[in-house]
Amino acid sequence: MGDFNNGAVKAAIIGGEYVMTDSVVEVINPSTGGVLATTADCGPAEIQLAVDAARSTQKKWRRVAQVERIRLVREVGRLILRDLEDLASAESLQTGKPIAQGRRDIEITARYFDFYASVAESFYGSSFSLTDSIEVTTRFEPHGVTAHIIPWNYPMQILGRSLAPALVTGNCAVVKPAEEAPLTALMLAALVREAGLPDGAVNVVTGMGETAGAALSASPGIDHMSFTGSVEVGRLIGRAAAESLIPVTLELGGKSPNIVFPDADLDKAIPVIANSILQNGGQTCSAGSRLLVHASVHDEVVNRLAAHFAAVRVGPALSDPDLGPLISQMQRQRVLGFIDLGRDEAKVLSGGRSLSGGTFQEGFFVEPTLIDDVPQGSRLYQEEVFGPVLAVTRFESTEEAVELANATDYGLVAGVWTANISTAHQMVRDVVSGQVFVNTYGASGGVELPFGGFKKSGFGREKGVEGIRGFVQVKTAIVAS
Ligand code: ADP
After folding, report:
1. CA-CA-CA-CA torsion for 186, 190, 191, 195, nearest 10 degrees?
2. Cβ–Cβ < 8 Å for 323, 355
3. Given this model, what pLDDT does residue 445 score?
4. pLDDT at position 98, please?
5. How far is the CA of 220 from the centre of ligand 1 (A)?
6. What's the rounded Cα separation, in Å, for the pair 232 and 252?
7. Is the distance from the beta carbon of residue 253 to the nearest atom of ligand 1 less than 6 Å?
8. What is the predicted pLDDT for the residue at 75?
9. Residue with CA nearest ligand 1 atom 11
10. Residue pair 284/104 in contact by the 8 Å Cβ criterion
11. Under a CB-based contact definition with an 8 Å cutoff, are residues 365 and 325 in contact?
12. What pLDDT, on the 0 to 100 scale, is given for residue 241?
């Protein structure tokens, strides 16, 4: 796990050089409240250096043979797996996620590099004869410099899903990790160099969102942006992209429902629904944070969920609990505020308290919390809580289920639980959401599954074979003989 526990100082990585700043940003261990490390507090000068480094490297990188780029990107994936334990520990320490989840995240990150290396193997343009004397070919060309602004909840996975397709198609990157969890991005940049990609192919500028992030998004030297984070910041990023007239992918979270019909297989559904809100402490864009349940099975479902929640082991990240801490004290206060709202406007059935002392030390722990009869008008129904808080609402008919499912500003993921094929098809058709799962749930695992939002959950798609398209432009050559 490197030297993070000793409060190490970690520099930004720009053009293959370590760059430190006078002021620093502290990275807090959410399991203890202690300082894990300090990182560079990059500002406009460092951003400029990083963008310039990416720009000059990209001129060479784009001309490296595709087969060689594929080999190098695949090698990054291999090195990630070689260092799995170190990366997983660092990921878990900085985010508070249970170490088993940390390992899973690193495996998925490695798979992005392997997967997009494979996708690139057969990612070609087309060729056709327009007339007897005119031949047309289309080529996929890189944008140039891609900016990756990354949140703290899945720092490695979310970076991997945009960085791997960007690099393999010939772009060079400037990465702004979240100030709360920047350590693994720095480790990844070192592995990218070790794999043999040129210095400057991946630059990591640590620092605050309002300074480093804002300077990167406004830089005239970037050609594409990938952003995952909040709606508010997504708006700012979208504005910056409009100003520079560059393409942008925005993944802005959700308020995703699991929808349980009377004929659902509850033995299968209950653990998956519980996991969909408890995984990563509910700090997942695609968390199943709403439960819409048919009135006829409501009591059974909530009782079984309450029993499941009561058995959850809460603890520090490296003790491999079921549920770790939230990312920060601020986030815990926010989550507790939503739970208070639940006490006023609905019924808190289980959990609801913050935990401290003993093994919890000064960490940011909150019990898994089940809140019943949450009305559609409540902020708890409408807003992303980003905590282990499940809002339950009952419905009487399929039409009402659709209406309730679509009654928020978001549209990222939905889960449908039914044995009836017609109900399943109807829900897939009518629920406004980037992904709809039937009798399963989980967006993070499958790198093959195109992912992205409808409505305020954002636009653009990452992941899957489709995900590579966002990182290239089509050039058409029309050649007359
Ligand atoms: P979260 O709610 O997950 O913290 P944010 O949207 O606040 O999400 O942050 C996601 C990423 O965006 C982080 O890397 C953060 O530093 C960055 N960020 C925050 N504010 C800005 C901003 N004004 N401009 C650019 N990036 C920002």
Report:
1. 150
2. no
3. 66
4. 98
5. 19
6. 9
7. no
8. 98
9. 151
10. no
11. yes
12. 98
User: Exactly one of 107, 285, 383, 462 is catalytic; which is it?
Assistant: 285
H or E element that contains 293: strand 290-294
CA of 229 to the centre of ligand 1 (A): 6
Å from CA of 41 to ligand 1 middle: 14
User: % helix / strand / coil in the chain, to the nearest 5?
Assistant: 45, 25, 35
Binding site membership of 217 for ligand 1 (Cβ less than 6 Å):
yes
Predicted pLDDT of residue 6 = 58
At 34, phi and psi to the nearest 5?
A: -85, 170
State both tokens at 426. Answer: 């109807």
Residue with tokens 């057969």: 122
CA 453, CA 406: separation in Å to the nearest integer?
Answer: 13
Pairing of strands 172-176, 202-204: parallel
Pair of tokens at residue 9: 């100082």
Q: Is 285 in the active site?
A: yes
- What one-letter code names the amino acid at 155? P
3-state secondary structure of 306: helix
pLDDT of residue 68: 98
Residue 234 Cα: closest atom of ligand 1: 6
CA 406/CA 392 separation, integer angstroms: 15
DSSP codes of every residue in 125-164? --EEEEETTEEEEEEEEE-SEEEEE--SSSHHHHHHHHHH
Q: What is the mean pLDDT of each run of 10 residues along the chain (481 residues)?
A: 65 96 97 96 98 98 97 98 98 98 98 98 96 98 98 98 98 98 98 98 98 98 98 98 98 97 98 97 97 98 97 96 97 98 97 92 96 98 98 98 98 98 98 97 84 96 96 98 94
Tokens describing residue 46: 């460092």
Buried b (16+ CB within 10 A) or exposed e, 225-237: bbbbbebebbebb
Contact 385, 335 (CB under 8 A): yes
pLDDT of residue 1: 42
Mutate to test the pocket of ligand 1, among 153, 233, 333 (most ligand atoms within 8 A of CB): 233
